[in-house]
């Protein structure tokens, strides 16, 4: 049975679509609470994604509350679909958020933060394997962004589902995760 990115994208999009709003909320809260056990809380600059609710992504609102409760600097991004680059902005009380044409909530503008300042990145994904490779939506935004971060930046995937054994078609440029957190397990990758 092929376990390539295309097959996995389809499988996990379908699995996600079956989740109810209540399940998404409960599972997202479980994932957020499990993050408390990770050795990341001495860091200052945390990058987080705002979920595309239409795609039933992990709701990161609980994590946002944790970060602001711990007085962390929170960074969110805006994607440029022509250059495939992400611009990063500090999330403040004045940040205006607007959905782009792909329903991704994004900051309108703000204080820009360079990638190399970011210490922890919460990474959205559709699937991942036991080696820490992930399958995203296939646009390459995160691989590009993560390659601009410092090597020691901690990359944490968030998923409702557990790891696949192996993703067949991993590329050289695919950035590996350090951790992936699911409602049932905390995965740590070397």
Automatic annotation (TrEMBL):
Species annotation: Flavobacterium hiemivividum
GO molecular function term, any single one: 5-formyltetrahydrofolate cyclo-ligase activity
Protein family (similarity comment): Belongs to the 5-formyltetrahydrofolate cyclo-ligase family.
InterPro entries: FTHF_cligase, FTHF_cligase-like_sf, NagB/RpiA_transferase-like
Cofactor: Mg(2+)
Stored PANTHER family: ATPASE INHIBITOR/5-FORMYLTETRAHYDROFOLATE CYCLO-LIGASE, CHROMOSOME UNDETERMINED SCAFFOLD_24, WHOLE GENOME SHOTGUN SEQUENCE
Full protein name: 5-formyltetrahydrofolate cyclo-ligase
Residues that, per the record, bind substrate: 52, 57
Top EC class for this record: ligase
List of residues binding ATP: 5-9, 134-142
Reaction(s) this enzyme catalyzes, per UniProt: (6S)-5-formyl-5,6,7,8-tetrahydrofolate + ATP = (6R)-5,10-methenyltetrahydrofolate + ADP + phosphate
Classification via Gene3D superfamilies: NagB/RpiA/CoA transferase-like
Keywords for this protein: ATP-binding, Ligase, Magnesium, Metal-binding, Nucleotide-binding
GO biological process: folic acid-containing compound biosynthetic process; tetrahydrofolate interconversion
Matches recorded under NCBIfam families: MTHFS_bact (TIGR02727)
Source lineage: Bacteria, Pseudomonadati, Bacteroidota, Flavobacteriia, Flavobacteriales
Domain of life of the native organism: Bacteria
UniProt EC number: 6.3.3.2
UniProt xrefs under Pfam families: 5-FTHF_cyc-lig
